[in-house]
Each structure stands twice: as C-alpha cells, then as structure tokens.
Amino acid sequence: MTAKAELDIGLVVAGHGRHCTVETPEGHRLTCHPRGKKSAVVVGDRVRWQSTGIGSGEGVIEGVEPRRNLLFRQDDWKTKSFAANLDGLLLWFSVDPVFSESQLTRALIAASSAGIDATIVLNKTDLPGANAQRERLAPYRAMGCEVMELSLKPSPEAARAQLMPRLAGRSTLVLGPSGAGKSTLINALVPDAKAQVGEISQALNSGRHTTTHSQWYWVERGPDGRGTALIDSPGFQEFGLQQIEATQLPAYMPDLLAHAGDCRFYNCTHRIEPGCAVIAAVQRGEISASRWRIYGELMDEAARKRW
Fold it and tell me: Which of 104, 142, 109 is nearest to 121 (CA)?
C-alpha cells in the first residue's frame, strides 16, 4: 500500500451509495470507492486516495482526514449524514408549503450539538400567508436565532445580494423540506448547476423529492482551491435525534435553557415537576407553547431509544 504521506488528498463533492465523487485541488473530479465493504465518507470530507490505474479515472479511498464537524440525523434504525466540515447551515423553509416547526427545532438542535452556525431562511415571502409564518418564527428571533426573509424566485438578484455576505468564503449546507426552493437557490447562485426545481404537489401540500444525495456546488472558487460553496441536500420528512440524550435537550434549546437553572429540583425534566421555572415561563408566555410541546415529544422519543 502507498504510504499515507504519498497519497493524494481530495474533497468529496457527491456521494452515490457505495462510491463517491472526489475533486482534486486542481479541480479534476473522479469516482472513488472505499476500501472495504462500508463507505463512511460524506460530502465535505477530505480524503486520501490513490488511483486504481493509469487512465482509469477511478480511485480508492484509503483514509478520511479528521473532521471539524458532522451534521447528521439518527432514528431508531439508521443514521443519515448530510455533510462534514461545514462553516454554516441555511435552514431553508418557505411560506408555502407551510414548514414544520418540529423539523426546524430538530435541525437547530442537531446543528447546535455539532457546533455549526445556523441561519433560518424564510423564502417565498411574496406569497399570501407570509405574516402568519413570520409570527411562527417570532420565538426563534426572540431567543437569538438569525432569521432571513427573501423572495428568491421573483427577485433572484436581490436575494443573492442578501445572501452572499453570509455565504462568502464559507462552505454552507442548505437543509430543508422539498418544495421550499433549495434547488431554485442553487440555480440562482450556480447557473450551470442544472439543479432540478421540484414542483409542489398541491394534493399533498409537500414537495417532490428532486435531490437524492448531497451535492457540492462552487459558487465562487479561487486559484488556491478555496472559495464559496453550497451543499444541496435531499428534502426530508423525518429528523430523528437519537444521538441526543434526553438530559442534554434543554442545553440545545436556548429558550428553555434561560429558565432551567431556576427550577426547584436540580434534575427537573421540565414536564410535570412542581416549582419548574420552565413550565412557569410557558404559562407566562415567555416560552411558546409549541416549543414546549416539541420538547416533550423529543423527551418521549429519547425514552423510547432502541439499544
């Protein structure tokens, strides 16, 4: 086997089951396969690889460089990784189809636990119903989350000007449900991406899945191989958080954490205990009832973990 120091280093820009696409520092892309039966690489990984032969256009991944972070979701049965080594996350939602606050909360918790800076984006604010969705996001603004509003499809240039200061020089994952306009964003910022734009299913009020795997797109790239990148990800309907212990949940929910230290009992679950400062804050309207309900759902799911 080639010594580690002699192996080429590349960036994983797409995953396709048992193989992935690796980009070299010079910008060349080739198909690589992991050594062994299981692939542990994800988009955003830096990997060490070697060619399978002269002119083959394929390689073998010999190792993965240490990651700065990894965003993933985990349910009872499987773990789904989105991307690694991220500088930021755009949680991309829209006025229509109406977004799930539970999905938003879960994605924020996953990002916080991975140490990834997240920005909430509300797209399609030109549509009727925008004010209602703004009100739903008010608790998130109040607890310190950055919330951006834009209308990407009718005003792509204005949206680009609004987004680029947040994206410039960073690797950013775009995460959200199908139909929210993620592929429209890719097409607007990366004209040659040819990302399909999913049509919203009126009957089901949900989007058609048009992206089946995470994909790295360069928005701007310098001669040193660095620049501004967007990672598009598949739309999702479920977002498990089995990787988070029940006792850790309040630490990743700033509105609950602000009051949890004032509870009568040190091991308060913030569900039924007397003298719970979190419950009192819900009753005073300082924590939204929906956020507390979602917290309860997450606690119940954590209690049903499969080992």
Answer: 104
The DSSP code for 248 is G
Residue 237 lies inside a defined structural domain of this protein: no
Residues 207, 134, 167, 233, Cα dihedral to 10°: -20
pLDDT in tens, 156-195: 899 999 999 999 999 999 999 888 988 889 888 987 776 3
pTM of the shown model: 0.88
Q: Does residue 239 lie within any of the structural domains?
A: no
Q: Please answer whether residues 49 and 61 qualify as being in contact, where contact means their C-beta atoms are separated by less than 8 angstroms.
A: yes
Is there a single domain that holds both residue 187 and residue 80?
Answer: yes
- Residue 36 gets the label, from left (phi > 0), alpha (psi -120 to 50) or beta, of left
Q: Are 149 and 159 in contact (CB under 8 A)?
A: no
- Rounded to 5 degrees, what angle do the CA atoms 121, 238, 298 make? 90
Q: Write out pLDDT tens, residues 219-266.
A: 998 777 689 999 998 877 779 999 999 999 999 999 999 999 999 999
DSSP 101-124: HHHHHHHHHHHHHHT--EEEEEE-
Domain containing 11 equals 4-64
In angstroms, the Cα distances linking 140 to 112, 144, 192, 219, 286 are 14, 7, 35, 29, 12
Assess whether 279 and 191 both reside in one domain: no
Count of domains observed in the chain: 3
